[in-house]
TrEMBL record:
Keyword tags: Chromosome, DNA damage, DNA repair, DNA replication, DNA-binding, Nucleus, RNA-binding, Transcription, Transcription regulation
PANTHER family named in the record: FACT COMPLEX SUBUNIT SSRP1
Protein name: FACT complex subunit SSRP1
Protein species of origin: Oriolus oriolus
Pfam families assigned: HMG_box, PH1_SSRP1-like, POB3_N, Rttp106-like_middle, SSrecog, SSRP1_C
Biased composition (Low complexity): 497-507, 644-660
Length: 702
């Protein structure tokens, strides 16, 4: 037989709620680890007194009773696992695993039996229900009645708050059955009564959660926080962990108390009690006990008279009374030398402490994440600046925590820490080495943004090329014409010639004039069709037939109002999604009906396009004749201007250039008529050959 048995997804019943976790049975005893809190219950094999197997709501359950009266319940077993558990109990614990079913008769009259910390209501020999007396917060008596009130359970959707028992009177003299019932309950109930004197009192301590100044009174079984507005009584049994954390400024200390269940203030729940101390504040403390009692109870951990820093005294007293270790930061050291990292969580700035077995964030809201509940971590780029990054943690339950605005210099230290703890890093490839992934991330912090822009540019070019290829015109010509840099340079050169025309060098002017008309002629030949082509693409003829709709679009137009009436207030996006689902679920026969309608619409469109193309071809022939006529006029005008510019002075070429540039744009317009172009020719010729002045004749004689 195996020495150990392990079960996953087992539920432990604690104060009315079911906490899932893992159960392990070994020779030494029974260990249950809560998946939510990480708390471990360890039952030694020598302490086990009885084991009961029974049918419960979650399959089958195991109830263990110890010799000191404690009861532990674990549910979620399968019926087939009984034989395996029974043999294990016989072999290692020397116990018979008894089978006892609950009574389901529905009677409300029976007997009450007190066994250890359990109240059992039985009918005959079968239990109907059991109440752990540690759940009882108050017990009150009346005439023949006992009322039990319970602690509120925040984890359960429905919580039992009160149960009343009717206790019939008896004939026995001197014994009140109601009082006897109440005393049995109160002896085991979790009723906090501030009787007696406090062991010690700490005055006016600064508390961050819940916010305020509180006097802390230390009692043997609970902690009493007394403030101006609220009082809290915290049993030591609800303290889960203790943390002592140095502030980043090295002048203050955080003392954090983790609570389960949390303390309540109205609807607010505080899972952590956070105290803030100054390192310079000292205190002398005297316990309200004699030295023998101190030695007997605390076994040297505390003394009657103590002195030192205030945070040391509070943490030392709490450690002795709660009997739990105090967790401090490990060997992690950030970029600035502190043992924490400044970051933001939920739009509030705080400090993240990497511990030896988890992370803790203080202070608003406090968060503690254990390593064993982490599924993976992720290093992400900051959303607003490249000078910071985000640290994301996702738990096995699917909860995600994002700590943002971490300084970039902290990345190396934090990555090395996570790597050393062997946590899964999401943004590291499985086949890549540790050091390699670190270097890759460091490089991407510098260059990733630029690489992203380059990739977007390439994708944009590909989309443009595809769009141009699918259009009616020539794709190559469109790609060449869409080059604003070259076009601007050519225009700038033409306008620069005006400024150079004022130079006194006549030879230089004549050289420029010889070169630029040739360049100008090239522009007229190559760029005139390019300018027309985009205009023809952009302008759509309103008389052209509209493209036919697909079968889906025809169906959607017909069904849109029906979908809106079936789903009032539906948004446009939700309507589209719903329509897609309905179309997908539609039968083949119905789809074929809409396909036929779409085919008819396509035929009508093709017929209309043929008629439209015939009419368009006649318009195209007329425009071609007009275009040829305009080109002849431009060519004749260019010859006249070339001859005139050679015989003109240094001022006239500049004027001729500007006029020719203007006439080029004017002629390239589609709206100009042949009569207007003739008129413009006569005006340009008159402007190109003005009568020679005295200055011009003098320069010619020179």
């Amino acid at each position: 037989m195996a020495d150990t048995l392990e079960f996953n997804e087992i539920y432990q019943e604690v104060k009315g709620s079911m906490n899932d976790g893992r159960l392990r049975l070994s020779r030494q005893g029974v260990i249950f680890k809560n998946s939510k809190t990480g708390k471990v219950d360890n039952i030694q094999a020598s302490e086990l007194a009885e084991g009961v197997w029974r049918r419960v709501a979650l399959g089958h359950g195991l109830k263990l009773l110890t010799k000191n009266g404690h009861v532990y319940k674990y549910d979620g077993f399968r019926e087939s696992e009984f034989d395996k558990l029974s043999d294990f109990f016989k072999a290692h614990y020397c116990l018979e695993l008894a089978e006892k079913d609950l009574c389901v008769k529905g009677w409300n009259w029976g007997t009450v039996r007190f066994g250890g910390q359990l109240l059992s209501f039985d009918i005959g020999e079968q239990p109907v229900f059991e109440i752990p007396l540690s759940n009882v917060s108050q017990c009150t008596t009346g005439k023949n009645e006992v009322t039990l009130e319970f602690h509120q359970n925040d984890d359960a959707e429905v919580s039992l708050m009160e149960v009343r028992f009717y206790v019939p009177p008896t004939q026995e003299d001197g014994v009140d059955p109601v009082e006897a019932f109440a005393q049995n309950v109160l002896s085991k109930a979790d009723v906090i009564q501030a009787t007696g004197d406090a062991i010690c009192i700490f005055r006016e301590l600064q508390c961050l959660t819940p916010r305020g100044r509180y006097d802390i009174r230390i009692y043997p079984t609970f902690l009493h926080l007394h403030g101006k507005t609220f009082d809290y009584k915290i049993p030591y049994t609800t303290v889960l962990r203790l943390f002592l954390l140095p502030h980043k400024d090295q002048r203050q200390m955080f003392f954090v108390i983790s609570l389960d269940p949390p303390i309540k203030q109205g609807q607010t729940r505080y899972h952590f009690l956070i105290l803030l101390f100054s390192k310079d504040e000292d205190i002398s403390l005297t316990l309200n006990m004699n030295e023998e009692e101190v030695e007997k109870r605390f076994e040297g951990r505390l003394t009657k008279n103590m002195s030192g820093s205030l945070y040391e005294m509070v943490s030392r007293v709490m450690k002795a009374l709660v009997n739990r270790k105090i967790t401090v930061p490990g060997n992690f050291q950030g970029h600035s030398g502190a043992q924490c990292i400044t970051c933001s969580y939920k739009a509030s700035s705080g400090l993240l402490y990497p511990l030896e077995r988890g992370f803790i964030y203080v202070h608003k809201p406090p968060v503690h994440i254990r390593f064993d509940e982490i599924s993976f971590v992720n290093f992400a780029r900051g959303t607003t600046t490249t000078r910071s990054f985000d640290f994301e943690i996702e738990t096995k339950q699917g909860t995600q925590y994002t700590f943002s605005s971490i300084e970039r210099e902290e990345y190396g230290k934090l990555f090395d820490f996570v790597n050393a703890k062997k946590l899964n890093i999401k943004n590291r490839g499985l086949k890549e080495g540790m050091k390699q992934s670190y270097d890759e991330y460091a490089d991407s912090d510098e260059d990733q943004h630029d690489a992203y822009l380059e990739r977007m540019k390439e994708e944009g070019k590909i989309r443009e090329e595809n769009a141009n290829d699918s259009s009616d015109g020539s794709g190559e010509e469109t790609d060449e014409s869409f080059n604003p840099g070259e076009e601007d340079d050519d225009v700038a050169e033409e306008f620069d010639s005006n400024a150079s025309a004022s130079s006194s060098s006549g030879d230089g002017d004549s050289d420029r004039d010889d070169k630029k008309p040739a360049k100008k002629a090239k522009i007229v030949k190559e760029r005139k069709p390019r300018k027309k082509q985009p205009e023809s693409k952009k302008g759509k003829d309103p008389n052209a037939p509209k493209r036919p709709m697909s079968a889906y679009m025809l169906w959607l137009n017909a069904s849109r109002e029906k979908i809106k009436s079936d789903h009032p207030g539906i948004s446009i996006t939700d309507l589209s999604k719903k329509a897609g689902e309905l179309w997908k679920a539609m039968s083949k026969e119905k789809k074929e009906e809409w396909d036929r309608k779409a085919e008819d619409a396509r035929r009508d469109y093709e017929k209309a396009m043929k008629e439209y193309s015939k009419a368009d071809s006649h318009r195209g022939e007329r425009s071609k004749k007009k275009k040829k006529k305009q080109e002849k006029q431009v060519k004749g005008k260019g010859d006249k201007k070339g001859a005139t510019s050679k015989s003109s002075s240094s001022k006239s070429p500049a004027k001729g250039m500007s006029d020719s540039f203007k006439s080029k744009e004017f002629v390239s317009s589609d709206e100009s008529s042949s009569a207007e172009s003739k008129k413009e020719d006569s005006e340009d010729e008159a402007a190109a050959s003005p009568p020679p002045s005295s200055e011009d004749s003098a320069s010619g004689s020179d």
